């Protein structure tokens, strides 16, 4: 379980906060939906202890992130920037990570082969020499196979073709443990209908709402009573309602389009 | 041997850039030293064989140090690039920060010393080929210990350079700053012609060639101008070997202490600020 309490994060001392008072609890399967630049990846980095926390707390299975060292099985993350340690082949890098996490090498290879990345490619190329799509699939496979109780997946479907997307969905549903999956694409709601969904806009988190409720919901301007959730984006307040007028979320395709709505 | 250690050594020793600059390029200078610059060296005369041996020792000491300094550029880059994954790995894998420091140090040091040994072996082989003299060091363990000290200092210097850039948030300077170990290597190399006098003791690693020379041949050289010393065998300013050793140990302690301080400071730098 990951618990986030009143979290504030900024990159440099004089800059504006990227995360502004985030409170959330991730205890099983969750989606984190938000437009690009809303702070989703920064939140993941803060949870993993990669970005200093200005204020607030991150607790993973009850342990403060600042006090966690050398603990395997607690958290996995699919950010490629943290998964390439040495100047070695992608295959050796995979071996190393599975060794360091006591992960499942067979599962990692199975996922990778299923996603179209053959073992020979892994042996021939360095992690950063893989294509962008391969790199994302590689780091996602690595995170899933590390057998961590909590897995953070940053845009795992990015640059995957539809066939590979559906194969990856199968592994995510099958995974036993907490998963937090962030994305800006709304089609994801139909693939993970029973997952609890948080929305994120401009460094603030809203929700949670079950994905199945959001699939057919509409976005309306202003604050509405009985809304599933209300949020602020681009200086305006919006509400997500189950019935009534407004723009269906499913029609947005990506939440980046929230700023194009003229309501 | 752990898998991390094995892959660290494999990764560095199979890096084409590292092979090119720290081995092949230095091998070219080994060839130049022995076959072009050593035309006046011969086995003739009462001290002939001794002069050949000292010449070979100077060659592998200085060129070995250059090779290690060159490989330290690769280490600086690896420290910089590892700074991102390392935060994650030391938290969420079996690799604790302490375990990482020990394993990475052993791996890095092994690569530096292997580089120096490759240069040493080629100098000894080519010396035998040209002069028929087996110029093996008198005290092999002493030379080995000297190379370990040199490697240790360069390893931690690489750390200081990479971490200083991270803490100062000046990571764009990595390509220039990573050459600092090599610049130091060339500064030490200049002692073949220049005698720094007592300043030798305050320049990092400047006393290492004297220690290697002493362990390999038993002689106590001057504080510099090694080529003049080779020709004349007169050492006007004999080096104090204990002070020489102390100088290296103090510099190692300084580099390690700085690394520890910088490691702590670097934790406050967000990953997003480390873009090149």
Oligomer: heterodimer
Under the CATH scheme, the architecture of the largest domain in chain A is 3-Layer(aba) Sandwich
Alpha-beta classification of chain A: alpha/beta
Q: Radius of gyration of chain B over alpha carbons?
A: 20 Å
- CATH superfamily placement of the largest domain in chain A: P-loop containing nucleotide triphosphate hydrolases
Morphology call of chain A: globular
SSE topology:
The complex is a heterodimer of chains A (263) and B (276).
Chain A: E1 2-9, E2 19-26, E3 29-33, H1 40-47, E4 55-60, E5 63-64, E6 75-77, H2 90-101, H3 105-114, H4 119-124, H5 132-145, E7 150-154, H6 162-174, E8 178-183, H7 188-191, E9 196-201, E10 204-210, H8 211-215, E11 218-221, E12 229-233, E13 236-241, E14 247-248, H9 249-252
Parallel strand pairs in A: 3-8, 3-9, 6-7, 7-8
Antiparallel strand pairs in A: 1-2, 1-4, 4-5, 9-10, 11-13, 11-14, 12-13
Helix pairs in contact in A: 3-5
Chain B: H1 3-13, H2 16-37, H3 48-92, H4 97-131, H5 140-167, H6 174-177, H7 180-189, H8 208-217, H9 226-232, H10 241-266
Helix pairs in contact in B: 1-4, 2-3, 2-4, 3-4, 3-5, 3-7, 3-8, 4-5, 5-8, 5-10, 8-10
How would you sum up this structure, described in words?
- Chain A folds into two domains: 2-74 and 148-260, P-loop containing nucleotide triphosphate hydrolases (Rossmann fold); 76-147, no CATH class.
- Chain A has helices at 40-47, 90-101, 105-114, 119-124, 132-145, 162-174, 188-191, 211-215, 249-252; strands at 2-9, 19-26, 29-33, 55-60, 63-64, 75-77, 150-154, 178-183, 196-201, 204-210, 218-221, 229-233, 236-241, 247-248.
- Chain A contains nine helices and 14 strands.
- The termini of chain A are far apart.
- Chain A is of the alpha/beta class and 263 residues long.
- Chain A has a six-stranded mixed β-sheet, sandwiched between helices.
- With 276 residues, chain B is mostly helical.
- Chain B has one domain (3-273).
- Chain B is built from ten helices and no strands.
- In chain B, helix 3 (48-92) packs antiparallel against helix 4 and helix 3 packs antiparallel against helix 7 (180-189).
- The radius of gyration of chain B is 20 Å and the shape is elongated.
- The A-B interface holds A 9, 11-12, 42, 45, 48-52, 65, 68-72, 74-77, 81-88, 92, 95-97, 99-102, 148 and B 3-4, 7-8, 10-12, 15, 78, 81-82, 84-97, 99, 169, 267-273.
